[in-house]
Structures
1.
Amino acid sequence: MLRNTVRRFIEGRVKPDADAWEEAGFVPRLVLREMGELGLLGIRYSSRYGGSELDTLATVVLAEELGRSTYGGFAITVLVHTDMASPHLWHAGTPEQLDRYMPDIVRGRRIAAIAMTEADAGSDLAGMRSTARREGGQWVLNGSKMFITNGVHGDIFFVAAKTGEPGRNRDISMFIVEKGTPGFRVARPLKKQGWLSSDTAELVFDDCRIPAGNLLGEENKGFYALTKNLQNERIVMGAQAMGEASKAIELALDWTTQRKAFGRTLWENQTIRHRLAMRAAEVEAAKALVYETAWRDAQGQQVIKEVSMIKALCGTLVNEVMYDCLQFHGGMGYIRETAIERMARDARVQSIGGGATEVMLEEIAKRLV
Ligand SMILES: Cc1cc2nc3c(=O)[nH]c(=O)nc-3n(C[C@H](O)[C@H](O)[C@H](O)COP(=O)(O)OP(=O)(O)OC[C@H]3O[C@@H](n4cnc5c(N)ncnc54)[C@H](O)[C@@H]3O)c2cc1C
């Protein structure tokens, strides 16, 4: 039912307008509100806040279908809100914080963003330089954040900053910062290769004062919260990537079985159909890893190694699949009106964002010996 609901929404509401969102550089907030009304933004959250109380597998279904939309920018706008930003509140929020923010997030009335990365600290999050210091009943934030999805249009930001003594690199805390707080501003929206309908920004905190009650979770324990939430993020990104890859293969099948060259369809060339057959097999295998890991995660099992495998494998495979599927579209694959052209651009970031492939391989390697 969930899969069908997402598919219907994408066919009826997303595809007709998504090219315009790509041009505009963002997804209109009304679209998230409509998804909220359909119950798609709080799949794992308590019904107290309007959620559906489902598990990791349901999130994977959502992410896979959003990936199949062929609009990666739309997909990531939603998934950052549902699975990368709001889980920070869900896991660490006090009852007051949950009551205050969760209903609006689940209904899509306010858009969530997660601000970890800085210009000089991405893979190495402990290298971040933003700070927060306590002054009476307030925290004062200083620093900047880079590549923040939903940075321009977001309303609620979960921001990581150093709160320990100098040199204590993992003494990081998380804070809730609302749009419009004095001292917090968007430095600039960032233009990207792909994910064009996803807004990405650099943010600045300049003596930004927030109430002491906006500390999210325990002081100095934010590094572990970031690491924990990245597990879910990586499962979801793997599911999204495999949704995109399956859809790309379907588009390539449509094209190669119709397009003729040298008196036969492209599909009649064994080299092409064997390549697509192998890609289809690889995608099915990767999907199986995603689903099995999601199932194990839902059972409460430890899946750090598998999650790193998902991110490394799916982030690489989606790019290989896009390369082949674009190649078999010939010149049309390079033309903007063809979905595969956009999908190939969108896929590029998936071996970088949310844990670069090389960093994931280190995480796997550590757990192999
Ligand atoms: C479009 C987009 C959206 C994003 N959205 C968000 C967001 O919403 N919130 C947020 O906080 N962040 C976001 N990010 C940041 C993203 O997670 C980081 O870009 C990513 O973690 C990589 O960090 P970096 O760019 O600083 O690369 P670096 O850490 O500088 O790494 C550069 C490259 O070096 C290699 N490398 C790094 N470390 C190692 C190592 N130990 N061994 C071998 N090779 C290594 C990898 O190939 C890596 O890609 C986003 C990024 C992009 C591009």
2.
Amino acid sequence: MSEPEASERGVVRTALTERLGIRHPIVQAAMGYVSGPRLAAAASDAGGLGLIASATMSLAELDQAIEETAGRTAAPFGVNLRADAADAAERVRTIIARRVPVASFAQAPRPELIAQLKDAGVVTIASVGARRHAEKVAAWGVDAVIATGGEGGGHVGAVPTSLLIPQVAAAVDIPVIAAGGFFDGRGLVAALAWGAAGIAMGTRFLLTSDSPVADPVKQLYLAAGLDGTVVTRRVDGVPHRVLRTTMIDHLIRGGAVAGLVRSARNAAAFRGVSGTGWREMLRQGQAMRREGGLTWSQVLMAANTPVLLRAAMVDGRTDLGLMSSGQVTGLIGDLPSCAELIETIMAEAGRCLDRLDETRKA
Ligand SMILES: Cc1cc2nc3c(=O)[nH]c(=O)nc-3n(C[C@H](O)[C@H](O)[C@H](O)COP(=O)(O)O)c2cc1C
């Protein structure tokens, strides 16, 4: 058999690349205040799929972000949204009207939203952290799932990626995008071996030169070791993996009362930055209590997240801010562009596949 061309080595075709019409099976995971037009367009332009994180944007900001992203790249990109947002239906209408190729949901989307998007030709993706969630959304008709293991950044489940992906891939017939701990070509090949059709990465894309995050924040991530993150419920009531900072240590050690006082203050600040009225915040809080089984103190804590994430990602406040992070930050030591990153990953995946092939022949 003839040696594959160097250019062929970096080409991996999967159900995901075919379904989305992208060159490489690599998704830039949604990150609030991080994955706006600049990062999403750079990831898509490099042959992956960029996702705009819209949960931290108003409807008008989302509309503007879509327009800017489409102006920066001709490649397919997507919008990530919360299915439980009060204006989810309007966001879906905007995605359809703006002809965004992909809609990805942070939680299980309602079947009628999926149907509406699919009728309009939009590819739908749902994030899941457990097999039963993957089975549920697959039955509702989503086109693909992003399954995130416990080493991932942000809100995470307890099952590690190495166990979750084979389990989910065996359970559903739609493409599974593996997430949680990926950063290189070996990881991509491992994900394919587990039955996934591609990978999604958050922390790795945050640590690129195309990411808009302030340099001191990036440096903190780069300096962290594999033990540099912690999963805590103290931030917003549900398990959240973040960089371990002095502020986080205080939060973990501090009493519930101190947490509540801080939460109330942040809720007030969030109202200020987001323009959300108290009546709307109360409505959202009641919905969270009902659907998420949360207590009022947990609901109040949830108001922490956008304010604290913004302080770090937008204002560069490493002292005050919340920095969601995957464990993988401990293995990352550079800030390539998205194009360099994706090219390096695909070249390494190609070499890795060749090496495995040699092992089989030996
Ligand atoms: C800084 C940061 C912000 C995030 N914000 C969001 C978000 O707004 N919505 C969401 O669904 N997931 C969010 N996530 C989770 C990512 O979409 C993804 O699941 C995770 O980063 C994958 O793990 P990795 O960081 O090991 O690649 C965030 C992750 C990070 C690191």
